[in-house]
Amino acid sequence: MGDIRLMKGNEVIAEAAIRCGCDGYFGYPITPQSEVMETLMIRRPELETGMVVVQAESEVAAINMVYGGASCGKKVMTSSSSPGISLKAEGITYLAGAELPALIVNVVRGGPGLGTIQPAQSDYFQAVKGGGHGDYKLIVLAPASVQEMNDFVELSFDLAFKYLNPALILTDGVIGQMMEKVELSEFKPRWTEEEIIAKSGTWATTGKTADRERNISTSLDLDSAKQEIFNHKLQAKYRAMQENEVRFEKINCDDADYLFVAYGSSARICQKAIEIARKKGIKVGLLRPITLFPYPIKQIQEMLGQVKGILSVEMSAGQMVEDVRLAVNGKVPVEHYGRYGGIIPTPDEVVEALEQNFLGE
Amino acid sequence: MTEEIIIAGFGGQGVLSLGKILCYSAIMQNQEVSWMPSYGPEMRGGTANVTVILSDERISSPVLKSFDTAIILNQQSMDKFVNEIKPGGTLLYDPNGITRHPERKDINIYKIQGAALATEMGNPQTFNMIIMGGFLKVKPIVLLENVKKGLEKSLPERHHKLIPLNIEAIQKGIENVETVLAL
After folding, report:
1. B153 touches chain A (CB under 8 A)
2. Which of the residues A50, A154, A160, B96 could staple to A101 if both were Cys, CB 3.0 to 4.6 A apart?
């Protein structure tokens, strides 16, 4: 058994970053994710692994520090909550446009605007469909437990470096603030310049040898023909992600007549709803997308011959439900149930919504 | 076994740390745990509550609407949570400051004079461990020896000298639970 602790999701993000050999964290505090930087400041990894931790003067500064660090081939990250991620949106599309690997963590709170500090999942569109401008995609991972907060930090960096694309952990105030038992990862050394080159090539603005051109990290190309070719390359990359990187979990699906689709903390609530519904004789299962981009389209389609109705459950007014409907393409009824503005749905409410929508009660 | 617990009272009473120590104690006996606080603009004197789930199995929702056990430490929390205890469930409360006592007949009700006992011990900070003792008495799902280990795990080393005092407070709690209604 490894290092078992009782920790908050936010604290685990920080600890996992140190342990997976992250080179730098640049952030700005905001509830409900402030424990990420607080934990890093208390841990002082600069003394242990050499990881740099900087509280920037603003979110905009923090994301551009990430751009700088990523350009140098370093494993760098930032974290924030919804309003802060909006401020970072410009930097995020620049990262995607410059094909830079980085990790961004969004511990979502209710919006719009400054909204509330309570949990929500109303940044799905922002994370998955854009947020910033241009045809770009982030690799989006949605942890549903404190253990996954640990596991997905290293996974995000691995995927970000594999595809030279920013990755985003989309979580919320529930998973960020709750404590659970977690087995922390082993310590891994930070990558050397040689290791980065061996893993992902000589794209970074560092390690120039006499026999190659200087690398310039930019998302600007005024030649539209070249810009279109570059966009083709990005789209090919996103198709490869869709092909290779879909992650999901199925719970109680084998005999299910109905299906919940939910991610993150809503998926946890749906698991309890399944217990309640099954006691009433309603056979319902859960398909939990772990990657929100790439989305488990095929996996939802595989359930269509079996289930009579799908309820998409989110703490939003209905965002992910659009992707469920695209996957289902009218073959079975798809409904949405959500609470928002910082209200967390109860498992009983979710069962009631299932009954009202599909069981005529 | 799954035990779904709400602990609610004033900020500063040690509500959140009581929940944390309970979780660590359950981890010591290889159980799954979740600890979900109310978070927000709460501060000393405001309300604070935490949902704690201890289970032999993987825990589903960390956020709940009804509870097996409620540990209630002020009037606001009594008003908010007394009707969210499952029928047949358990209420443990400190009557200090309570003017509207629980009237339900379908739950087990126990009282513990936590605030008074802490004053008697000459250390108000032992309050939450007295309550812990009360909980262990009415719901013996966590072994005392695992609570000791849990205290060692959850308190920073510089505070380990306080563990004997905490154990004394737990003992005090175990010995001073009053039964109001046992089904």
Report:
1. yes
2. A160
Q: Does residue A178 sit at the B interface (CB-CB below 8 Å)?
A: yes
Distance CA A180, CA A5 (A): 8
B72 in Cβ contact with B78 (< 8 Å):
yes
> Residues 68..97 of A with a Cβ closer than 8 Å to B: which?
none
Fold of B2-181: Pyruvate-ferredoxin Oxidoreductase; domain 3 (3.40.920)
**pLDDT for position A19:** 98
Contacts of A273 in chain B (CB under 8 A): 61
Top pLDDT among A357 and A200 is at A357
Domains of chain A by range and CATH? Answer: 3-194 (3.40.50.970), 248-358 (3.40.50.920)
pLDDT > 60? residue A1: no
Question: Where are chain B's structural domains?
Answer: 2-181
- Sheet of A3-8: strands edge to edge? A3-8, A179-184, B32-37, B47-55, B2-10, B67-72, B85-93, B108-112, B177-181
C-alpha closest to that of A173 among A107, A121, A83: A107
ipTM: 0.91
Any idea what DSSP says for residue A139?
A: E
